[in-house]
Amino acid sequence: MGAFHGLLGLSGGQLAGVIAIAIFTLCIYRRYLSPISHVPGPFVASFTRLWHIHRILKGDQNLELIRLHDKHGHLVRIAPNEISLSHPSAIKKILSAPLHKGPWYKVIAFPDGRFQSPMGATDPAIKNELSRHLSAAYTLPNLLRSEDGIDATLSRLFTWFDRFSTQKKAIELADWFTFATSDVIGEVIFSKPMGFLEAGKDIDNTIANSHAQAAYVSIAGFFRWVHVALLSNRFVTWLGIAPWGHLINTAMSAIKERMDRPDVERVDALGHWLRMLESTRSFDGKLGSGKARMEEHEVRSAAFGAIAAGNETVAAGLQAFVYYMIRCPGAWERARKEVDEVLGGEGGEGGPGGVVSYASAQKMVYLQACIKEALRIFGPASMGLPRVVGKGGMTFDEYTIPEGVIVSVNIWVMHHSKEIWGEDAREFNPDRWFRPNAASLEKYFIPWGAGYSSCPGPNIAKIELSKICATLVRDYEFDQVDPKQEWSWKAYFTAVPGGWPVYVKKRGHH
Ligand code: HEM
């Protein structure tokens, strides 16, 4: 360091002064001279990303953004080079367009930063190529081939609920729904539940630790090189010390077992990917060449993606359904009447305890509107989805945003926009889906994101939400231990509520 000062001919104090002036100049440039300096937003955000990171860690980035858009309008500058958009056309112009994703996404790599995952690929052409084989496993007909396995898993959940009803024991739905959705993902991906419902408890504190992991991932994307240096590198992978935890470990050993036994034929997603792997093994198309190929690490990465993204999101949707339904007078009874009608009276489908089929749940239009409304009012994905403006820039209102600026669309901001949904935008009202303008609002309903980078798992989520919500409405009621208590949650990349214990009551038991 001393040699460095000497080289510049500066004393320690002078060097500190030069650095301070450089930082000050950069701040002035970012605040007053940058091409997006005229876009309104929090003062600090205009010269440092730390404002955004602070809001993420505080866990209220979604609500804060809604407040800022209410105050400033369609454009809010949330970092020196990022603008959040609430303009109704932003979904089409930003998410549905083939824009590159923001650099934040690159942090999503498995098992380490050397490998590109579909979510981590920022170039739309590469992302599409990496996803091509994966998504075919998630079509509705493919997934419904696992419906019996899903039913067996969910029956375990309802057996627990029956027990809690008899015991009059208060439970956290956050835990039980996450146990169930984790087990279902195991069933759908590799025909093996993760074991939470069998154990009836959080295994290895997996779910308890997931909040800290979620907070880490949501900001690690802004410090990717630190993340690569500490955790996401070849050395950590080689040592096998990455803190993946029970879910990923279970998935990886299930994949290994299946690869060791190529004679086992299964209808799950893994079976599909392994067949793809086999048929493309001899093919040496290069990434970016537009040619189909799939490699072993991509199979692992696909399972990792589903497991990392597919349990708490659905569990949050399920919680939102129960939470808002029990607060909406008459909604549970109305949904139950419909469920009974469709199933032909109390019990229906295999009698009490039998899990409602996906096909029957699709006929329950009010129930589906309630599920949809729960996902609108409480979108499980709470972080803005960043894209990079391409050549020629982009115009919203009187602003022209130049090439290279990051533009993000936050699902909460869009779902809570009064301009789009009307004055009752921030209320839970399933009946909005029966209004004459409902069809025209579909394009603004984006719980899964939109465009080439949107969630690959809606069909899995819809199967779970439909079956679980229909069965809950038919067979159970929920009373909060403290009916006035609001739930709490932290909005990182996803928002997972908790802290609202309930009593489960089996229908007819008092
Ligand atoms: C209610 C449930 C769910 C919601 C609301 C949801 C929402 C989202 C959103 C908003 C994204 C980000 C899109 C973007 O970056 O532009 C995403 C990505 C993803 N989701 Fe979901 N998701 C849900 C359930 C699932 C399930 C069940 C799976 C299981 C396969 C899944 C797997 C993934 C994966 C792998 C990604 C990364 C996709 C990629 O970029 O390749 N999600 N999800």
TrEMBL record:
Binding residues for heme: 455
Record bears the keyword Hydrolase: no
Ranges that cross the membrane: 6-29
Domain of life: Eukaryota
Alphabetic keyword roster: Heme, Iron, Membrane, Metal-binding, Transmembrane, Transmembrane helix
GO molecular function annotations of the record: heme binding; iron ion binding; monooxygenase activity; oxidoreductase activity, acting on paired donors, with incorporation or reduction of molecular oxygen
Pfam families: p450
Cofactor(s) the record lists: heme
InterPro entries: Cyt_P450, Cyt_P450_E_grp-I, Cyt_P450_sf, Cytochrome_P450_monoxygenase
Family: Belongs to the cytochrome P450 family.
Name the UniProt record assigns to this protein: Benzoate 4-monooxygenase cytochrome P450
Species the sequence originates in: Rhypophila decipiens
Taxonomic placement: Eukaryota, Fungi, Dikarya, Ascomycota, Pezizomycotina
